[in-house]
Write a structure and sequence with these properties.
Layout lengths: L2 E5 L3 H14 L4 E5 L7 H4 L4 E3 L2 H6 L3 E4 L3 H13 L8 E4 L6 H8 L4 E5 L9 E7 L4 H11 L3 E5 L4 H30 L4 H21 L5 H8 L5 H11 L2 H22 L2
Parallel strand pairs: 1-2, 1-4, 2-3, 4-5, 5-6, 7-8
Antiparallel strand pairs: 6-7
Helix pairs in contact: 7-8, 7-11
């Protein structure tokens, strides 16, 4: 059993909370803090304690998940530091983009910190979570993996910058894919399908395609693409247009923009 606090009750805190319940049952004591109690009722309905006091949540916990927005984290941690809370005997797991170990260590006066970057498919246990460990013990690493295993695939990184990369290609990219799927549905409706028909077609296409990628580990993605493409055929013509509109260049700039924003946060929150 662990005594766990979530500082912030947003979407990712909810995903991790549900993952813990799924894999560990109700064996842990969990407390969730946030400024609005009514928004935390979903946690209370699953046997968690809820509070508006971040200090109370941390004082009662051995493991602390930081799940507030980057713009709010400094003030939250300064409030806790001013209360002389000792973080050295607590494992702190931060899911906050843009806050490097150096900034967290300065604010917490502790290096017993883990940085993680999960994504929203974690809600279904189908997510990917990047993990980078600070100065923690092997027991802390084992506990971290055990708490997060219900989210899906876990990948440990030695380099802290990899957390930024997975934030862009794993954390932000579901929104990019959703937008792509939205566009396909919109075009299907323009061509005569109903909204319901279009969504069924596109969601099954996406599921089947992702499953092909996973099932065909011995093939490159380019080979899978070529297997769909006959020279001069319909797919070939569609891919030509993607090339004309510089699809790869657009995606490079998209990922670059996400990375640049993360680096802006890092400069803001040194």
């Amino acid at each position: 059993m662990s005594k766990i606090a979530f500082i912030g009750g947003g979407n990712m805190s909810s995903c991790i909370f549900d993952g813990i319940i799924k894999t560990r049952g109700f064996s842990d004591e969990i407390i969730v803090s946030g400024p609005h109690l009514e928004k935390l009722e979903k946690f209370a309905a699953k046997k968690a304690t809820i509070t508006t006091s971040n200090l109370e949540a941390c004082q009662k916990s051995e493991v602390i998940f930081l799940g507030v927005k980057p713009q709010m984290l400094t003030s939250v941690l300064e409030e806790l530091a001013s209360a002389k809370l000792d973080f050295s005997n607590r494992l702190v797991i931060s899911m906050v983009a843009g806050f490097r170990f150096s900034a967290l260590e300065r604010l917490l006066s502790s290096s017993r910190i883990v940085r993680i970057m999960p994504n929203t498919p974690s809600k279904l246990g189908l997510g990917v979570t990047g993990i980078c460990f600070g100065n923690v013990s092997e027991d802390d690493k084992t506990l971290t993996h055990d708490l997060l295993k219900g989210l899906g695939t876990l990948i440990d990184f030695k380099e802290e910058e990899s957390i930024n990369v997975i934030g862009a290609v794993g954390g932000s990219a579901p929104a990019f894919l959703y937008r792509f799927l939205e566009a396909l549905i919109a075009e299907s409706v323009k061509l005569g399908m109903s909204e319901d028909q279009a969504r069924k077609v596109i969601e099954q296409m996406a599921l089947g395609t992702a499953s092909m990628v996973i099932a065909c580990q011995d093939q490159k993605l380019s080979e899978l693409r070529e297997a769909v493409t006959s020279k001069g055929g319909t797919t070939f013509e569609g891919l030509k247009v993607m090339s004309e509109y510089k699809f790869e260049e657009m995606m490079a700039k998209t990922i670059e923009a996400s990375m640049n924003r993360t680096h802006e946060f890092e400069r803001m929150f040194k």
